[in-house]
Write a structure and sequence with these properties.
Helix content is 69%, strand content 1%. With 304 residues, it is mainly alpha-helical. The structure holds geranylgeranyl diphosphate (GRG).
Amino acid sequence: MKKHGSRSQPTFDLQAVIASQAAAVDRALDQFLPAATARPATIHRAMRYSLFAGGKRIRPALCLAAAAACGGAAADAMPLACAVECIHTYSLIHDDLPAMDNDDYRRGKPTNHKVFGEGIAVLAGDALLTQAFEIAARCQGWPRYSHQTVVLELARAAGSLQLIAGQVADLEGEGKRISARQLRYIHERKTSALLCCSVRLGGMSANCGPAQLKALTDFGYNVGLAFQVIDDILDVTQTSEKLGKTAGKDARAQKATYPSIVGLEQSRKIAARLTGRAFDSLKVFKGKAVALEALAEFLLCRDR
Ligand code: GRG
């Protein structure tokens, strides 16, 4: 892993941790979801098709890493990690629909509607969104964070003021000249909100204190924005094969991105600056947030 700035070197093998966590997340998701054969089988196959299509599981990894930074157990964070991944996958299925980004390729495979048809793809997204709340609703809550607080956290991140607001602004901005400020508004909502929610939920599952929750919020916000800036950069610098989704789409759709507004070099600097801020917010954990640090570094240097 490439070093960034003068931060302490993560002391563990992040790739191995991510791989073993992803396998654990897959097992948990498999148990939370109805079987592929449950009637009507088409919808359950469609939900599982996208959920197990090879996503990087970044949001669950952030949730579990935040729980670890606060001294929590992975088993307590796991349902919330799975709930966030269901919401994320729903948003990708809907984003790929002809009425939105109209994409044929996602997570290295044909998109959901290409395999199951548009009607089932809409329903598979709806069902995954609903599934997320069923999983979260089963959590018992923690002394500082009630069951209701946890569900509210997810609802806010996925709702019309955050994830959906970002998507609306994105759709309405296509083909228009938009400012860096407007672009940030889109990225904060379309991408950063759910990443931030992931780390906050991880902290909540560890019954974290208010200072820790504030630190996780700052971390999630900055890492979330950096994640999208890097995503914009990868869209113009990587191939579709590498990304597992159609590269170069932003430019073809005349979408404003960080590279199109400020150029590639400046975009890289912005991503590094945001990651630096994310690192700064982890000081409160006094060296216990190694997994979050390693993830932030990994996300900055990622190539897919
Ligand atoms: C349809 C409500 C609704 C929202 C769609 C998620 C989204 C908003 C649009 C998809 C396109 C996009 C650029 C989203 C920003 C977030 C993002 C970079 C998603 C991709 O996340 P990764 O790279 O994907 O973690 P995997 O497949 O690895 O999970």
